[in-house]
Amino acid sequence: MTAIKKEHSAGGVILENGCLLLIMMRNLKGDKVWTFPKGHIEPGETPEAAAVREVAEETGWDCVITGPLFTANYSFMRGDTPVEKDVLWFLMRREGGDGVPKTPEEIVDMKWCSLEEADGILAYASDLEILDLLKKLP
């Protein structure tokens, strides 16, 4: 039996004037999906530092965290290996940068969209849970 691999990631949700920044990536099957920027927490790195770093790498925007948002937990198979993953999500605000992804091989596209438009294109259950939380913000 294959041992379960545990993975820890962090990501950021940039919300400005009622619009979200989404990125398009390829999932494990190679399909294009709209989602929020996130990535693995490196050894010795805090979830907050990982979220800021990943957002900068994937979107080209330097951001600051304005608060914790959501923790997603899910499982999936990577080949024959079962993976249990948690993702700590943070709400962010842009402070600088050029909007040019530093990992263009990972990012297919990027766009700002309204919460309503995001509702129609986000596919992951955890992303839709985040969207529901955002809709309830003052």
Using brief descriptors, characterize the structure shown.
138 residues; alpha+beta; Nucleoside Triphosphate Pyrophosphohydrolase; seven-stranded mixed β-sheet; 3 helices; 7 strands; globular
Question: Can you describe this structure?
Answer:
The protein has a single domain (5-135), classed as Nucleoside Triphosphate Pyrophosphohydrolase (Alpha-Beta Complex). A hairpin with a 5-residue loop joins strand 2 (19-26) and strand 3 (32-35). It has helices spanning 47-59, 115-121, 125-135; strands spanning 5-16, 19-26, 32-35, 38-40, 61-78, 81-97, 109-114. Strands 1, 2, 3, 4, 5, 6 and 7 form a seven-stranded mixed β-sheet that branches. The protein is 22% helix and 49% strand. The model has no long low-confidence stretch (mean pLDDT 95). The protein has 138 residues and is an alpha+beta fold. The protein has three helices and seven strands. The radius of gyration is 15 Å and the shape is globular.
Basic shape: globular
What is the C-level CATH assignment? Answer: Alpha Beta
| Total count of strands | 7
CA radius of gyration is 15 Å
Largest sheet: 7 strands, mixed
CATH topology: Nucleoside Triphosphate Pyrophosphohydrolase
The number of helical segments is 3
Brief description of this entry?
The chain contains 3 helices and 7 strands. With 138 residues, it is α+β, with helices and mostly antiparallel strands.
